[in-house]
Specification:
This protein has 146 residues and is mainly beta. It is built from one helix and eight strands.
Length: 146
Amino acid sequence: MKKTSLMAAVLAVLASSAWAQNTPVGTWHSIDDKTKEIKSEIVIADNGGVLSGKVAKLLRKEAKQDAVCDLCTDDRKGKPVLGLEIIRGAQKVDGKDVWEGGKILDPENGKAYTLRLTPIEDGKKLEVRGSVFGIGRTQTWVRVGS
């Protein structure tokens, strides 16, 4: 009886830890579409059910650590890219492992796109879709430490 209870407890812990990873919350490496090089480290946080994400590190060899978002057109204009909030307002879709309704900013062109975040591969990767009028692109980010 004790063995069965212990096994059930271990399985419950393992299942809950796997479930906990199936979220965009955490630290991610964004990957360059063309070179497949790691571009930056993004930290996504949950603030009362609403996600936000900031650039924590610029990792490209040629990255200017003091770069600012000159092309931004909102309150982020002229702000340093390092520490810049690039994800705003995404919320979990009821009954799905998908977060939508927010925006993602591309600091390289200053444009904000409608956002969709979908954890894949048990939360080890994140599909990040940015679009305008349904036209856009999807990047796959990799969880740091997975």
